[in-house]
Design brief:
single chain; alpha/beta; TIM Barrel; 2 domains; about 50% helix; about 15% strand
């Protein structure tokens, strides 16, 4: 195991520690402000307008996962309905990302489906798109099934995410492309066992390139979500050699990371979309960002002492 992988495992493990949670919550805004657009929808919409002015598209995420009641899920559903209306009313260039567990998937799958369908239907009415974020492996199949069910009911404005570190992903990509599902392709940010996921970063990168190529070769619109220059540069070269227009696919990056590079990609004619979270339930998202690379932790520490 190399140093980066060890660092990632340590951060994801200690994130469950009570003291670490207390420390993070106590200094919450100071710690997380690098990665979170604000507490409220209006704050997020203001930030979307700022990024759109630089040519950067957005996918907006209201933070929350691992809920404990269906009433809580209903509250998130209502916030997402307001979110869809807010995007439409402001006229900003943003689609929507949500987590199925936020809508109750771990509690009652049918209720979660109905909650998500309400959001997807509202988005469809406004000509917008909803991405079902992929969470950790216990929810992989359920998320795929939900996405396919929505498509079969006529909601083709919904897509999901494929994680390159899972062994199963190449086969899943084939199946979902066959059904016409729009996919975001990522490395994967959760801690997963070696029995189901690649543990070495070189193996993850190799599989990532494999599924990106598979997507391009099938003529599918490809959303590549990565901050890794090896992936970004490889995609640029592949697209140029395959004569794929810069507007025929998109790069995606996270809010707060490489913002100047995101603007530069837009200036160079590439489609670039920023994953922008907002809300007060930031802790799980925040710790995954820290786990991805040591540089993210250093940025947070610098923010603390400004």
């Amino acid at each position: 195991m190399d140093g980066t992988e060890l660092y990632r495992k340590v951060i994801l493990t200690v994130s469950g520690n009570i003291f670490v949670k207390w420390l993070s919550i106590k200094y919450g805004k100071k710690l997380a402000s690098r990665f979170i657009a604000g507490d409220t929808l209006d704050e997020a919409l203001d930030e979307i307008e700022r990024l759109n002015a630089k040519g950067i598209l957005v996918t907006l995420d209201h933070l929350g996962e691992g809920i404990r009641s269906l009433d809580e899920a209903a509250g998130y559903r209502e916030e997402y309905l307001r979110l869809v209306e807010g995007i439409a009313n402001r006229g900003v260039q943003s689609n929507i990302s949500l987590k199925p567990t936020q809508m109750g998937m771990a509690l009652d799958a049918d209720t979660a489906y109905q909650n998500i369908k309400s959001v997807v239907r509202k988005a469809q009415e406004h000509g917008n798109f909803v991405r079902l974020d992929m969470e950790d492996s216990p929810y992989t199949q359920a998320t795929i099934d939900m996405t396919l069910r929505l498509h079969k009911e006529g909601f083709t404005n919904v897509g999901t995410v494929m994680q390159a570190y899972l062994f199963r992903t190449e086969a899943d990509v084939q199946d979902l492309m066959g059904a016409g599902v729009n996919l975001r392709l990522v490395k994967g940010a959760y801690k997963e066992a070696g029995t189901i996921a690649y543990q070495k970063k070189e193996d993850v990168i190799d599989n990532y390139k494999r599924i990106i190529k598979l997507h391009f070769d099938q003529g599918a619109y490809t959303a590549v979500a990565s901050h890794d220059d090896r992936i970004i540069d490889w995609v640029k070269v592949f697209a140029e050699q395959a004569r794929i227009d810069k507007q025929g696919f998109e790069f995606q990056m996270l809010y707060g990371l490489r913002m100047n590079d995101q603007a530069a990609l837009a200036k160079d004619g590439y489609r670039i979309r920023c994953y922008m979270p907002y809300g007060t339930m930031w802790y799980p998202y925040f710790t995954r960002r820290l786990a991805e690379k040591p540089a993210n932790l250093m940025m947070v520490l610098k923010n603390m002492f400004k």
